[in-house]
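I am sending you the entry underneath: sequence plus fold tokens. Let me know what the token row says about the fold:
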Amino acid sequence: MDDSPHPEASGSDARPLSALPSVGVRVGAFVAICLSGLAGALIGYSLISLQCEGDCGLPLGLGLLVGAVVAAGGMAIVAVLVMRALGEWREVEHRAAAGHAPQ
């Protein structure tokens, strides 16, 4: 009995077809979300610091928080869409390699 995870798999990609993205893709998405949150926080802080005079601790903190959350949330949506597109692309390539793709 063959212990390979996917008997039809050939080549370097012997991993079974799954909707779960690879670890590298997930790490890349996490890093992109973190960097986007940092950039959003800097933009929010800068926006408030340019407009506020005097004691601006609370407005600066809110600008920092709102900027970070909005930017990270937007990037999270983009990252999920990219990972889903990569999964669909891998499925299409798998079908084409198996000879089941439309001609």
Observations:
- The CA atoms of residues 5 and 17 lie 10 Å apart.
- DSSP finds two helices and no strands in the chain.
- Residues 57-98 form the longest helix (42 residues).
